């Protein structure tokens, strides 16, 4: 199988770096184009980036020149890791030029004809992309993955929703600093501290969760008819968002039934997507887990780890969820979306005509 | 006014150290006796203690010998900062010997005839102490203050309960390491990490909150008839417990009514208790507060700081509460209890007869 | 005694905030003017500042309008907390306009006619200010205090230099994040990490140390004829610079002689400067001290704490030095300089004529 | 090639866990025996251990029973990860019983007939093991690797010593908490703090460095004739010791000569030891590197990373060294020693006869 050429928009940021790390040695995709802000354009990537991961920049990538962030010369598959403001302006240009834009940005997640997708949860929502005007005109489209705080939660909730129905959700997040990019959170704000506020995060977490768990009705997603309330906090953790969750189910379920729902949740089994974890939701039995330092890399950073399942005196059950915010919560999420699109025949070179 | 002689049980631990720090220069009390484990007994306090506060050990205290932890030779007022297991055995001996034991331990908090008290919240529960058999026999008694995670929350809830009634409470804590004593939490467990579990903490937080907000009916406290569910987490913060709270009220209330309830909450006004903060509940308007590093010392560490008041999509309101866990949440709480007992005439030397 | 009116240049930064905190209730000085960048100008200080200290903004200050950073309308005594680039341009304007500029910036520290002073160390260097052209023309002048990494070290070295002479100095610093201002160090760079580089810091530490320990020869400071090599590192500490030091003395000295030199070092005794610590160099005997969290507030943050004195297998002695980098290392240093200038009659209102 | 059976003494500690992690899928060795304290004996390893690594316990290992720590039933190759006190008593028993004890403990490092070895540095010192009485009697022996603070430093110094000679060494360490084991450093001691003391560490670092760089003269190691002074500090880093180093060379050398010495240092090239890094000393050019979070995993945690090379105003050169303290500094060091012993024919099953 020949690898498909891909490009990365926003390649020098934290999520862009994760894309490069995860795409090194990827069996299906090959990075051929890197774009970043005008400031970086023209420089070798290795000079333009402040690399903050603990693996080396692949040598081939370090020497690759940073391209201007315009569709000219870009490949047809674009992973986009842009801030929402810039994404809002730039992603449509690439879609209009015929590119498949696999976006990690929040800019278009709630737009009616843009799929917001977690492959294990709502792959069928991808059908929406055929409704996009770009798709009809140039073959291009935008597909998005959720916010880093939503994705681990939704993975944990989906098996419960399927089997028991969900009526209400309480969630308090303790989010890692890498979620804010670089330089992001000032050390004076977070060292030995908690910041009980992340701009727009509670709104995104609430909205996206219900959309992801919602149903595709014709050309629209009908959000899940459940109530959700989120408290979002920043804590002094490098990677890995921890969430305290209480849920009220529509149908009572035993502890063993919940564990079975998580254990048996494997909607991508047999599809052989390279980035898909064997077990999307891992339950950890120890009473003091999951913990970000110890559990974020389960499933190569793509699993959602659940623990501390116990009855809730207000709702039915409470538990803790953890997922890696820049792998499963960002670059890995987009990459898995792209792999699914390949399987669905939506990333065939032939379908795209610039 | 002559200062009353007091002793400290468990003087070398983290809470014991706070007692010493807070009692230095106290206008009403004077430390004359310090007790700790057998290992420390006989040594000068300055040698026995691993002092972990950022103010110096008062010179007079450093030279004071550590006494054995027995009532012989102890003064009649005892501040107790013992682990629950030891407290369960030791505090009754001091009460039986005629001591007023002002305890920070959880050992007897839920015992029917032992007052669990926050002076601003349920001072009337102190009447229970007259029911104690020790009181009747020797004049001694035990009075307790709540768990460090309960006290800030209950201070914030009390004004709402008084004016609007409380039906349901969701609370997720992010607790400081000093709450676990010394050596307490291993650095390998908490640096760059969150531990979503603190043994027995959720149970204590839930039970104590309802008891503190409950009503004294004859010789019993009837807990508040509300539902409460707690998630307790440990985070990499030295001092100050942060809590994300959602509440459902019995009577709808506007934002301004909530703010007024907190602002006007001043049940100890006019009593001139030295350790009482002028404003027990401080509201901070900035969108990203309260934060432990910046707000824990409000009211000299005795205030409960509230912020981020906003509507809750599941209950009525949500907000963040912060309080200093070893001042308001431990030594300062006990000290304020003692000051109230002085006002009530329950710490008069004459009432105690060994 | 009437308090003298002072202004603060760069009032919204981290050092500016410390000036405000330290000057609240100062017996000699009263803040009447606050200036910051154009962006802040005109706003009430409480709105313009991102206050990062754990004490409240004094109410009077919060309401004070931020003035433009020009000498017009400024009082004659100016505490300057500006970045070096801005200071280089702005401080001379204030000096030319007749102001006594008490500067914390590095911009003019090494200029021949600008005194670089620690009151306990080289108060006589203040004579240099009479050489400044501004002084001759308008009465204005610039006086500076050293870099935050130099000041604790020099306080510890001065008593040794006086009694035994110093030939060589090795110093490795572990510096707190607050030294970089706000937002300063990104949390992704320092959480669970060490950064072995602080721009220009080693050069400043080396140069300033020798100048501070140098001698005033006529109109010039002759630096100390010693060798010094510095390694500067940033660590995950909020406040307090820790330094590992080895020294070679010109005259051999015993442990007890070193301890006596530090203990008896009290050059400001009897001067009653409000900010001067009773003991400028405190020795702490415990084998694992000084530590930033426990010792930075000695002498109200104005002491240099020394510990771990032991023989050095390469030089004569090695020890650890700690001092608070934004109090003794910045705002407190400037304030103590100003107090000394008052004593010397160099801050009399009459001497300044705009 | 059949894998040789090995056992781990002290398997539940932090270094024991690293042994298990590094030995999973090792081509030459297979874990067949795990021993720990009596408390753990008999339990399945997965229950006995508090696993603190971010990879899962291999399933086969989790189910393996923990054996008593006695030579009966133990395989002939033993990796020992014991505290020094216990090692002093226990390792000789295993050596006497015919085991090759590859020890990470400090207990016998300075004993004349026990090799203290870094394969890239002083492989010839292994000859000493033939002098051990155990070797002569039972075939068993003890081989040790250095302290975690010495190993990265010595790797960086060895190429300089070879080419230019070393006269003097100054080193200040900033050591990670994992070096103290679990629970090890209390979080209250290190969060937002520096502890300028690690018991016996400076002595070990000084002594071991000179022995490792020393020469085998007959049956004795003659330590390097250089002076060394160490300052050891603990900082809030999980893994990775950072060291600020100044060296005085016997023969002047240029920057380019030093870089070449490090670049060309490859004494194990061609030996194909599975754990040996391709480049034992990596130089990183960025001005603010190496940093523990970013560089500790170079060479799979087995490289020593050097950066910030610059002239020293007291000695010749100064630079920063970083190495992973529980991989290259402990379990990985022992494992590489074992691999070298296999190459040398000292771990052939036939040579050992119980």
Describe what this molecule looks like in 3D.
4 copies of one chain form a homotetramer. By secondary structure, chain A is an alpha/beta fold. The first copy, chain A, has 2 domains: 4-147 and 331-351, 3-Layer(aba) Sandwich (Rossmann fold), CATH 3.40.50; 148-324, Dihydrodipicolinate Reductase, domain 2 (2-Layer Sandwich). Helix content of chain A is 29%, strand content 22%. Chain A has helices spanning 14-23, 45-48, 59-62, 84-96, 119-122, 133-138, 148-164, 187-190, 201-212, 255-263, 292-295, 327-343; strands spanning 4-9, 29-35, 66-67, 77-80, 100-103, 141-144, 166-175, 215-217, 220-222, 227-234, 241-249, 281-284, 304-311, 317-323. Chain A has a 6-stranded parallel sheet, with helices on both faces. In chain A, strands 10-7-11-14-13-12 form a 6-stranded mixed sheet. In chain A, β4, α4 and β5 (100-103) form a beta-alpha-beta unit. In chain A, α7 packs parallel to α9 and α7 (148-164) crosses α12. The longest helix of chain A has 17 residues, at 148-164. The interface between A and B is large, with 40 and 40 residues. Chains A, B, C, D: This is aspartate-semialdehyde dehydrogenase. Chains A, B, C, D: Residues 5-129 form the Semialdehyde dehydrogenase NAD-binding domain. Chains A, B, C, D: Pathway: Amino-acid biosynthesis; L-methionine biosynthesis via de novo pathway; L-homoserine from L-aspartate: step 2/3; Amino-acid biosynthesis; L-threonine biosynthesis; L-threonine from L-aspartate: step 2/5. Chains A, B, C, D: Catalyzes the NADPH-dependent formation of L-aspartate-semialdehyde (L-ASA) by the reductive dephosphorylation of L-aspartyl-4-phosphate. Chains A, B, C, D: It is an enzyme of class 1 (oxidoreductase).
């Amino acid at each position: 199988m020949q690898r498909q050429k891909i490009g990365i928009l926003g390649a020098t940021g934290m999520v862009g770096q994760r894309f490069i790390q995860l795409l090194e040695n990827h069996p299906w995709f090959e990075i051929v184009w890197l774009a970043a802000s005008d400031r970086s354009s023209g420089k070798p990537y290795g000079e333009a980036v402040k690399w903050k991961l603990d693996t080396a920049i692949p040598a081939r990538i370090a020497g690759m020149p940073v391209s201007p962030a315009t569709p000219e010369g870009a490949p047809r598959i674009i992973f986009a890791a842009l801030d929402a403001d810039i994404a809002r302006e730039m992603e449509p240009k690439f879609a209009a030029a015929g590119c498949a834009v696999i976006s990690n940005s929040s800019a278009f997640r709630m737009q009616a004809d843009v799929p917001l997708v977690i492959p294990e949860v709502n792959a069928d929502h991808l059908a929406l992309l055929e409704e996009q005007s770009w798709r009809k005109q140039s073959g291009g489209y935008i597909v998005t993955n959720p916010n880093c705080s939503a994705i681990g939660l939704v993975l944990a909730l989906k098996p419960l929703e399927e089997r028991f129905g969900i009526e209400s959700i309480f969630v308090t997040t303790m989010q890692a600093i890498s979620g804010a990019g670089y330089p992001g959170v000032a050390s004076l704000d977070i060292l030995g501290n908690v910041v009980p506020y992340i701009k727009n995060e509670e709104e995104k977490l609430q909205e996206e969760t219900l959309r992801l768990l919602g149903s595709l009705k014709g050309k629209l997603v009908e959000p899940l008819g459940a109530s959700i309330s989120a408290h979002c906090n920043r804590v002094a953790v490098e990677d890995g968002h921890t969430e305290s969750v209480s849920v009220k189910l529509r149908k009572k379920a035993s502890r063993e039934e919940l564990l079975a729902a998580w254990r048996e949740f494997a909607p991508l089994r047999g599809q052989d997507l390279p980035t898909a974890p064997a077990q999307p939701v891992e339950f950890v039995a120890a009473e003091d887990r999951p913990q970000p330092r110890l559990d974020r890399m389960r499933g190569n950073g793509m699993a959602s780890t659940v623990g501390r399942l116990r009855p809730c005196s207000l709702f039915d059950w409470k538990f803790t969820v953890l997922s890696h915010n820049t792998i499963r919560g960002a670059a890995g999420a987009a990459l898995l979306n792209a792999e699914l699109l390949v399987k669905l025949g939506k990333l065939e070179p032939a379908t795209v005509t610039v």
